[in-house]
Automatic annotation (TrEMBL):
Residues 164-205 form the Zinc finger CGNR domain. The lineage of its organism: Bacteria, Bacillati, Actinomycetota, Actinomycetes, Streptosporangiales. Pfam families: ABATE, zf-CGNR. This is CGNR zinc finger domain-containing protein. PANTHER family: BLL6575 PROTEIN. It comes from the Bacteria.
Amino acid sequence: MTVVYTFDSHNVEREGVTGQVDFNSHNDGVVLVAVGLVNALTPGERRGRPFPVPADLPAAATEGLRNGYPNHREVGEGDAGELAEVAERLRVVFEAVSSGDVDTAAGQVNRLLDESRARPRLDRHDGEPWHLHFHGPGGTMAGDWAASCATGLAIVLGSEFHDRLGVCTAPHCDRVYVDVSRNGTRRFCSTPCQNRVKTAAFRARTKTA
């Protein structure tokens, strides 16, 4: 069976990507949530500056979820803390793929699938048609998103696009991304980081000249 993803044009434009890889259905938003949670909730560096643990964790968690689902409700304090733990574990997957270690990425995803008891289920709510969820009813917000993100990343890793998860290569940035470009050559988390690198290279050439 061929798995195809579809990242809609809104998300592609927001990430500054031209062209797209066709992935599939509900999974596009789920993978973007994984990216959003890692980038919003895990400390490190962002666009040339230190990125500490967010002071307002609920706002950061909400931002991460809205990366894939813009109308997602605001997150409470307890759920935000649990989502931050999920984000740390999701980061391992992106870092492993970025370093070429798909085995470690797959192992981490399998652990998340087991622990979150991920399972497919058709659901219908809020006036929407039937659609696929990757978790059952009655779970916690963090647990449900752990199951969904793990399943979404499993679909990516189990496809020909398994190398499309990455960590920004710009200096002093470790935010992550999913590469939906046609040729799979994305290296940066955002247009600002790409522009930083281009500007630095231009200045270096000018100085040498």
